[in-house]
Amino acid sequence: MAASIAVCVPGERLGSTSDYHAGPGTYCKQGFVYSSLAGFKHVQETAKDELPKMQIVRDEQETIVPQVGLVVTTKVVNVNPRFCRCAILSVEGKPLRQSFRGQIRREDIRATEKDRVEMYKCVRPGDVVLAKVMSLGDAQSYLLTTAENELGVVLAQSEAGVNMVPISWCEMICPKTHQKEFRKVAKVQSQYIQKEFNKVPSKHSQHRT
User: Fold this and answer.
1) What is the pLDDT of residues 93-118, one digit of tens each?
2) Which of 62, 69, 134, 149 is the one with CA 20 to 30 A from 51?
């Protein structure tokens, strides 16, 4: 029988080799068992005098996790001059069972003039952003990039609580107040923008932090 089941990602530390044997989909390194696959952590009980076996079980129809090279929909949580933190909500348009942490660094915002990027002129907290997974970073936080024309902010709300409209690759405007704001705007179809917006609560329905 399985003692525990949980979603895990490649490189995630699953336990100590003093507590578990490494099974399929895992490997040992410096006294710990790590996942080598995306899937479900499965602890298989063994004989009484043997350690339980840690393994990764994959169900392609049920398990959806971010993977390198895939496009993800994220919501920006906070922004500082060096990077922004995001919650990954869906992968290739498919919603996740749970959100994963993501990070977009200043140098990965766009492909050109990287040294002139100002984070707060590209993304802001609450923005919905299309990004591509680059790699698994530190502390199980995926490294993301928006350095393609099709990637970037797809939804942003003005201070008036209105969906802003893109007017260029770097600006959006509030149709109510006509105030312009800087963003790294994604070039996507309006139908996709509306579909993604319906998944994300308005910032006025949440407590401000």
Assistant:
1) 887 777 789 999 999 998 888 889 99
2) 62
Does residue 14 sit in helix, strand or coil? Answer: strand
Cα–Cα distance, 77 to 85 (Å, whole number) = 6
pTM: 0.61
Give Cα separations from 184 to 36, 46, 63, 122 (angstroms).
34, 53, 31, 4
Phi (first) and psi of residue 120, to 5 degrees: -70, -15
**Which are the contacts of 195, defined by CB distance < 8 A and separation ≥ 6?**
none
Domains, the chain, ordered by start? 2-57 (2.40.50.100), 71-152+190-201 (2.40.50.140)
Q: How far is CA 11 from the centre of its chain?
A: 16
Dump the DSSP string for 28-96: EETTEEEESSSEEEEEE---TTSPPEEEEE--TTT-----TT-EEEEEEEEE-SSEEEEEEEEETTEEE
